[in-house]
Write a structure and sequence with these properties.
Blueprint (H helix, E strand, L loop, with lengths): L5 E2 L3 H6 L3 E5 L2 E6 L3 H10 L2 E4 L4 E6 L3 H8 L12 E7 L5 E11 L2 E6 L4 H15 L4 E4 L4 E7 L3 H5 L15 E6 L2 E7 L8 E7 H12 L7 E3 L1 H11 L32 H10 L3 E8 L11 E4 L4 E11 L4 E9 L10 E5 L2 E7 L8
Parallel strand pairs: 1-3, 4-14
Antiparallel strand pairs: 2-3, 4-10, 5-8, 5-9, 6-7, 7-8, 10-13, 11-12, 12-13, 15-18, 15-20, 16-17, 16-19, 17-18, 19-20
């Protein structure tokens, strides 16, 4: 029920901007303000701002934090230094993805974990269960409801917010961050990250300052920053082939099956290592694919069936949309490995009972 949905602290701001609201991950979220196409192209060509405060925000701290995260996640935490971020995932005992996340290394004994909003409670239980099991001297703090997260994305993102901070944003490398003053507020974490593929920054701020900072950024006169909703965020991430939890990845898929071998490091010990290592060596029964539709006006959608030339169902679409940049339908999905023949590439998506040819391609769909 809509009455049970949570609200970010910027909820009233979205209503004032006449955003079309929708239910997303248990929150009232802006779907779009003008149109998803206008917002998408603004991020690709200029700059847009997203309220993504619904995301989960954990602090993991303690003298064994690094060792614990090294075991709990698939990527190599030892490879990142203070001020650096890393994309990774939690997996269960069978190798299924519990959640994907970004790890920010604050120090050797303190890490910020950004998890998906729909998985906040599940992730807390999983982390605490493993803390207790391994008797680590670690504390997990859930700051999800205390901090807001603004994402400023697009080629003009740096110019649009540089005046608000004493941090030289141009010197922050990709997947790194700094903590400093932003809009007169000290202790703000600014990271060179995002979920769009375009150049951008994400700002972590205490809730009490979020509304003023949001409004100040939108009031910029020299560089027009437009508010963007989750519809454009979804089409932007899809053009880059970024996975969406609950659709493209879940506890029924492993990082190897999902094309995320690059965040799975076998030189270390971690949960389900043996299972995933076997998959890496021997292959998997289902295989993650990305594809385009050359036929004009045909758009794949989540749940559509994938077919071979004999009209047998060989998989399904997990994410699909129209790419405003390519002006084609694009999609992600899974296909049974024993029925996949890349050389033949005679595969189809079923749209309204018609078989539409697809072309399997490598990610990302577009180059930024």
């Amino acid at each position: 029920m809509l009455d049970n949905l949570k609200k970010t602290v910027l909820y009233k701001c979205h209503l004032q901007l006449k955003a079309k609201m929708t239910s997303y991950s248990g929150f009232h979220m802006p779907l779009q303000y003008t149109s998803s196409l206008i917002e998408h192209m603004s991020v690709r060509n200029s700059v847009g701002i997203f309220d993504v405060s619904h995301m989960g925000k954990f602090i993991l701290k303690g003298k064994n934090s690094k060792e614990f995260l090294q075991y709990l996640t698939t990527n190599n935490v030892y490879c990142i230094t203070s001020g650096q971020a890393q994309y990774s995932c939690f997996v269960n005992q069978l190798g299924g993805i519990i959640d994907d996340l970004i790890i920010y290394k604050i120090s050797e004994i303190e890490y910020l974990l950004i998890v998906n909003a729909s998985n906040i409670e599940k992730d807390k239980i999983w982390i605490n269960k493993n803390i207790d099991k391994n008797e680590h001297e670690i504390k997990l703090l859930d700051l999800s409801q205390e901090y807001s997260l603004l994402s400023i994305q697009g080629p003009n993102s740096l110019k649009s917010i540089q005046k608000f901070t004493n941090i030289s944003l141009s010197k922050i490398p990709y997947y790194h961050f700094e903590i400093g003053i932003f809009s007169g507020i000290d202790g703000v974490l600014i990271s060179r990250t995002g979920y769009t593929g375009s150049k951008g920054f994400e700002i972590y701020i205490q809730n009490e300052y979020a509304e003023n900072i949001w409004n100040n950024i939108l009031k910029r006169k020299t560089i027009k920053v437009i508010p963007c909703g989750i519809a454009s965020r979804d089409s932007l991430r899809l053009e880059m082939g970024y996975r969406l939890y609950g659709q493209d990845i879940s506890e029924t898929t492993t990082p190897i099956e999902s094309g995320l071998s690059w965040i799975t490091k076998f030189e270390k010990k971690f949960i389900a290592k043996e299972i995933l290592e076997k998959q890496k060596k021997e292959g998997t029964y289902k295989n993650f694919i990305s594809f385009v539709i050359e036929e004009k006006g045909k758009i794949p959608r989540k749940g559509y069936l994938l077919k071979n030339k004999e009209n047998l169902t060989i998989g399904n679409v997990t994410s699909g949309s129209f790419s405003p940049i390519l002006k084609k339908g694009i999609g992600l999905g899974y296909i049974l490995l024993d029925r996949l023949d890349i050389k033949q590439n005679s595969y189809f998506v079923s749209i309204r009972k018609k078989r539409i040819p697809i072309k399997i391609v490598k990610l990302p769909f577009i180059k930024i």
